[in-house]
Design a protein that fits this description.
The complex is a heterodimer of chains A (about 70) and B (about 220).
Chain A lengths: L5 E2 L9 H5 L5 E4 L2 E4 L10 H5 L5 E2 L2 E5 L5
Chain B lengths: L4 H5 L9 H4 L6 E6 L4 E3 L7 E7 L2 E6 L5 E7 L4 E2 L1 H6 L6 E4 L3 E7 H10 L1 H27 L2 H12 L9 E2 L1 H8 L3 H13 L3 E4 L2 E4 L2 H8 L3
Antiparallel strand pairs in B: 1-8, 2-7, 3-6, 3-8, 4-5, 4-7, 10-11
Helix pairs in contact in B: 4-5, 6-7, 6-8, 6-9, 7-8
The chains are: A alpha+beta (about 70), B alpha+beta (about 220).
Chain lengths: ~70, ~220
């Protein structure tokens, strides 16, 4: 399971809206493309996915049954 | 800070207008900045200003008596908000809050009226913007009125829940929305509702099915 949002660099237009809403400071724009900052733990608020106008960011949820967690 | 013509041109209200037409409008436009989390205005306050987002993201929302928030729209650069009450007169229909540090351009109600009177093309642009807004809201109304979104989200979770520990499926809220034909905002709201009912728990990037019986009841399946 990814620890950070999944970024599709081919879709990202570098607008930076995701960076501006990120509450944990885990995203930055590098070479006009958003990237996750190593070492910053994402809180999975999914705001970056919500505001991205080009659908470049995905925050997938793993769906598990309670008794299969172990 | 002076408002630039180029900035105005990127706003649908002013698209297709020449520099000569736009130049006198600039004097009516003012800039406002806000920090993340700041409330820009509350619903039921007098609607005095129409805003355009130039930088950052704004959410337009309503809050129920028990504190639940329903997001009506995410406003990105180039888009406007608070149009309807400013044009029709009255009070703000929603609240608005900055989701990030934002820079806004604002036009006061009385100034907007002057601009429209002097520039019929702007009136046509506004009709186009408002028509799109009505279309979006109709979709939302449809979701509220005819569809049990929570029940369909519950059904999707039941269909996709991991049956084997090494093959746990993953879904984004956007994907769930696309699967059941609703807005992503509605999925977020439904997940919260399912969590309040005790059917699921959301732990960071995991949706844990806490009570399959409740979830099945919500989904209407036996």
């Amino acid at each position: 399971m990814p620890e950070n949002p999944i970024i599709d660099e081919t879709k990202c237009d570098g607008c930076g809206l995701c960076v501006s809403v990120c509450t944990c400071g885990g995203l930055e724009i590098k070479n006009n493309v958003v990237t996750s900052i190593a070492g910053v733990k994402c809180g999975w608020c999914t705001m970056c996915e919500l505001v991205c106008p080009s659908g470049a960011i995905s925050c997938p949820f793993e769906i598990v049954i309670e008794d299969s967690e172990a | 800070m002076a408002i630039q013509l180029a900035s105005l041109k990127s706003i649908p209200y002013f698209s297709g207008l020449s520099d000569t037409t736009l130049a006198p409008i600039v004097k009516y436009v003012f800039e406002k900045r806000a920090e993340r989390g700041e409330i820009l205005f509350f619903e039921e306050e007098p609607a005095d200003v129409l805003y355009f987002v130039t930088e950052g993201v704004v959410k337009v929302f309503k809050t129920s008596a028990d504190g639940k928030e329903q997001i009506f729209g995410i406003i990105r650069p180039g888009d406007s908000f608070n149009d309807v009450p400013v044009i029709s007169g009255g009070k703000n229909l929603t609240s608005a809050g900055a989701m990030s540090a934002v820079t806004l351009n604002g036009i006061k109600k009385k100034d907007l009226e002057a601009i429209i009177n002097e520039n019929p093309q702007i009136a046509l642009n506004i009709i186009s913007v408002l028509s799109r807004r009505v279309k979006e809201l109709m979709t939302l109304v449809e979701d509220f009125s005819f569809r049990r979104v929570s029940s369909r989200v519950a059904k999707i979770l039941l269909e996709y829940m991991g049956k084997e520990s090494n093959e746990r499926p993953r879904l984004t809220q956007q994907e769930i929305a696309a699967m059941i034909g609703t807005a992503r905002e509605m999925v977020g709201r439904s997940l919260k509702s399912l969590e309040e009912d005790g059917a699921i728990r959301i732990e960071r990037n995991r949706i844990i099915i806490a009570d399959q019986r409740i979830l099945r009841e919500m989904a209407g399946v036996s």
